Amino acid sequence: MFRVRELEGGNVREAKRVENTTGYKLHRTNSRLELVIEKVTTEDSGNYSCNLDAEYIANDQLFKKQYTSPIGDLSVRGSRPNVLESPDRVTGDLGSTIVVGVSAVGEPAPTVQWFRSDRGEEFELIDISSGRMETKVEQDFYSLTIRNLSLADHGTEFRVKLSNRMGSVTSLK
Question: Residue 171: which of 123, 120, 108 has the closest Cα?
């Protein structure tokens, strides 16, 4: 299988051979051959064709013929997540509630994972199952609400990782 722009004399020009390469698989079912593209990105956009080299005998002569069959055009829409504004430093009183948030865009809408680092330690994924912390998405604003602030929260840094099928990005602060 090829993502082609032009075929000439059996040689592919300005094309990318896609079978047996990372992210592409050929799937055979009986007489059907399918090209499976894993984790589609905008770079996969293009015209796809199948090349077939055939040999046959007629009148005691061996004939070779190459067939090119267009599969179709693939246009991938979407964009990798992009953090427009990283989390600001926030302060709060003991026992109060604070909200940390980022403005971000991406198509399709990204999923979010929040991480925390206590006083310079490694960043670890936040477990929100206790109910003290909650994530929320409103349009392009991704937030983490932290209830009942304690001394253990003092000096904590937060990062957010946003991911979609086009890629992922982690905020800097």
Answer: 123
Would the pLDDT of 172 be above 90?
Answer: no
Yes or no: say if 17 and 26 are a contact pair by the CB < 8 Å rule: no
Q: What are phi and psi of 151, to 5 degrees?
A: -60, -30
Could you report how far apart the first and last alpha carbons of the chain are, in Å?
44
CB 115 within 8 A of CB 159: yes
Strand partners, 120: none
**Could you tell me the pTM of the whole model?**
0.59
Nearest to 86 by CA among 111, 103, 66: 103
- Rounded-to-integer distance, Cα 2 and Cα 10, Å: 12
Tens-digit pLDDT profile for residues 150-167 = 998 888 888 899 999 888
* AA identity, residue 155: G
Confidence of residue 118 (pLDDT cuts 50, 70, 90): confident
